[in-house]
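We read letters as residues; the fold follows as tokens. A sample entry reads:
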Amino acid sequence: MPIFAANLTMLFTELPFMERFAAAAAAGFKHVEYLFPYPYAKEELAAALKANGLQQVLHNLPAGNWDAGERGIACHPDRVAEFREGAAQAIHYAKALACPQLNCLAGKLPAGVTPEAAHATLVCNLAFAAAALKEVGIRLLIEPINSYDIPGFFLNRTEQAIALMDEVASDNLFLQYDIYHAQRMEGELGGNLKKHFARIAHIQLADNPGRNEPGTGEINYPWLFRHIDGLGYSGTIGCEYKPRTTTSEGLGWLKEQA
């Protein structure tokens, strides 16, 4: 059976963030992930993980001004210094939280910047971050995100991510395969998971349409979970979905996997 991680940015949102760790543990999760740790002291987060018997499996590198609509700065040519400072901050937190992998959001194509310049910047930034994370034993991930939810996002498709990884040519750069984003952009979930399995370090899920819990949309999750198991996946699957009602009421799909 796959190992599921509660995404605390999306789940248990009726609670203050620091109370979501206990809620995840009470719901049966042993692993958690979330977008950003930076608003909180690393000591406070580490204590919450320890008190609730949880392992953190993922957070993102700093991604610019999220509240203002930024979704990453890795492809922004004028913000390379900020990206490198953010990578150092992310490593600082990841080491304190025993977090084995960090995701880099490519960001939206900046106004006035050509795709070629953005691509070159992204390659250089990923090469820098992959090397810096490798020194401390942390994996770097990149994630294609669908262009419907985030118009203008620079990295949209699995094949684009694989080509980018090949160009960076680091053995410490991996694919974060988000089933929801992949379904919206390309489908062929089973085939693409199998084709690119060796490059995938983390998987996330949500159903489509609606980005709600498994079983609410068109994706055949029982079959997909068996397929992922059959591939020999030993990582976690992040539950990055919007509960249709409340998190607890929508966890029937998870209980069926037990």
Remarks:
- DSSP finds nine helices and eight strands in the chain.
